[in-house]
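Standup, Tuesday
Yesterday: got the pipeline producing structure tokens again.
Today: sanity-check two examples.
Blockers: none.

Example 1:
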Amino acid sequence: MAMPKLAPVPAAHDKLRALGILALNGMFDEMDAVGVLRQAASEILAGDLAVVSSFGADSAVLLHLVAQVDPSLPVYFLETGKHFRETLDYVETLKKHLGLINVHALHPNSEDVKRFDPTGDLWETDPDSCCHIRKTEPLEPVTEQYGGWVTGRKRFQTKERGVLPHFELTSDDRIKVNPLAYFSDADVNQYKIDHGLPEHPLFAKGYKSIGCAPCTSVVAEGEDPRAGRWRGLNKKECGIHFDFNGAIAKPMTAATKHTLWKDGAFIADPFHEWAEGDDPATVSYKHVPLAVFLANRDAVLANPHPLGLLIVPGDRIEDAEADLGRFASIAIKFPAFTDGRGYSVSRLLAERHGYGNEIRAIGDVLQDQIPLMRRCGFNAFVVTHEPTRQALIENRLPEVALFYQPVGITEVPAGTRPFLRRAH
């Protein structure tokens, strides 16, 4: 039966759309996998659907369905830079065998990797952050382009997936399609046999669920197929999935209004706000208050995770001068529009201490301040004020043309003769 394509909705969660998803699941609850995918691709989300595949142990089954329904459907593979060589070879094997003509590899941002994982061992100390920069961040801009996407998840894989439906409504009002939701492990294996699908080279060696090489291990007989993923850690998902029951992972932030302005755009912010009770020896992606750092200096310096430093009015940046290079970001708080002490701190960082990483302004950050902040060394801004957000997006910030207190050697004080000014 033909189904009308669901109309686009605003970012706010639409209750009628949620009811529509329940109706879809009721109508297609017993439909076979290829039927579910065909309805999604040709009717429900026609022209607005993409596939995300790990090209892992069971991926051939989903991709065979894709080849039957539409081999030109866009298929995205997260090439994290940490995959087994066998997985990369398997991508090419399946593309050729199935005739898939629209497969794309998504790579992590090289600057993010350089900044947060310079030695390549972040997976060992902070796997959540490793997944964030290598999977979640590269995928988010892609999902923003589509109304829905297809996954290969199945109910039998983990207890959290035990109530997985064919259709989900994610927190950003996109539709996630799970054609294989009701497949059992035996169904998957029999499907591969029935259709003569090439096996992942590592499957016969005991790898039943295959992700990045450092975080994947062999599964023993009788174990949960995903027991070999992040073994020994309290981690079950990489972060790109959010089931309707909320138990698997935090929702993707694709439709979230980002507040960090950097390099000419609002982007996802890897840092989170410091909370009371946080352990300075183990936290990651947080700005440690200066007072906490000074009281726990050895623990912070030994902490292997990416960290920032938080400066509030009254703090002396000189107290951390010897350790500024430890921090990937320094956040300077402006508690009020009239409090200008943060400008001096930024100038000290950039000019006296030679700090070259991110200097971000937080707090009361408004459009009239940003040109001045930039002059003083700020290169990132956390902005929640809506008119200021729009001014940044539309590139219509006020200009500063006259300098009574010049910065550096390029700005000339008003009323002086430039040709008499010399560099010091």
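Example 2:
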Amino acid sequence: MQTTRKFIGKDLLGFGLLLVFLILFLISDQLNENEQLNNISADWINVNTIFLSIVLEAVPFILLGVFVSSLIQIYVSEETIQRFLPKNAIAALFPAAMLGAILPFCECAIVPVVRRLIKKGMPLHVGVVFLVAAPILNPIVFASTFYAFRSEPTNTILYSRMGLAFVLAIIIGAILYGFFKNNAQQLRGDTHGHIHVHEHSHNKTGFFARIKQTFYHAVDEFFLMGKYLIMGAFIAALFQTFLDRSVLTAIGSNDYSSTIVMMVFAYLLSLCSEADAFVASSFGSQFTDMSIVAFLVYGPMLDLKNTFMLFAFFKARFVIIFMITVTIVVFTAVLVLFGLIL
């Protein structure tokens, strides 16, 4: 009974947050145009605008992610995953990075997919490689980065971003393997009650039964992820509005400080990886190339909104070690790439 109330409470929270989003979406024009709303600060109207833009940008990729996750749940067996993965733990890292170069997932959509793959038997460290590689290496991000920096004749930033993402994904996966081996127990238990409601029908193999199951899982995971996306987007909107960007610009000319600042900026802004290159290119005259590359590599691997999702789906110890590893590895690698350390 207590468990049922817990699930109902989470459902109500999810529906409530989505309702708030819909209300803000519907009245956003009135907030921007109505001069009689003098009690509402222009900054808070800007928070609303940024919040809506982040959510609207992410929702299509969330939907893509939950449907792929559901298809994996229904159609991919544990035996299939085990058969196609190399037995050697280190050798398995390379196919995961290559897979990330094919599938168009952003950092929002990739979390449920990786969670589902691990539950299906994919080793934890291989899932980590896919988690950090797919949001950067996919063809959509390659095209958007190329277009955003098309005025750069050597394409240094584009190739630095893609090359670092591939190499660092493997390194991060190897480090996490050293901490956790293949321990899938780092996943939290099912955090949504509806999944259990539909398990009775998983033995049905008919086409329509499978379609029904796919939509059940997609709806469950969409509402589960939606509330974390909305919370993360709101916090990110607050930072985007109230951070003094002039302070950031003042320290942007120093290689070390600008790299740290741009990594923090990437984390707080929580931009979708398909769009972040256009924001990064706007800082080209104020920040160093090294710091911009750090922004483009670090943000898709780790940002504020996918941190919420990671804590929702993985145990805290894993998430903390993952965050520390990604931060240190990206910062060190960028310094090495641009020749500041050997």
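Quick observation on example 2: The longest helix spans residues 207-242. Residues 53-337 form one domain.
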